Amino acid sequence: MPLIDGEVLDRREDAAAQRGTRFAVMAELSVRPMTDVEFERWQRHLAEEFAAEQVAAGNWAADEALQHALDGNAALLPDGLATEGMLLLKGYARTAPWWARCGSG
């Protein structure tokens, strides 16, 4: 499908503004299952960021924070990518990768 040209985009934005709503153009999105390596990297990154937030908030001691976050992640996804009821995907909008978490809650 071709990208929306400027004229069509302007008309859609104008129509949305008249309805009092916002208009956004979304890039084409492709998704695929996350690989084991990607999952491990994602889990580590997620744990490091969460641990840092907890330390900054004064909730956890710095020397224990990362392990505590890793343990929490492991409890939520006990079988990693194979955890029942979970679907972990890696998505790409054009050429820039982004991460998506799908699930309830």
From TrEMBL:
Per the record, the domain of life is Bacteria
What is this protein identified as?
Answer: Uncharacterized protein
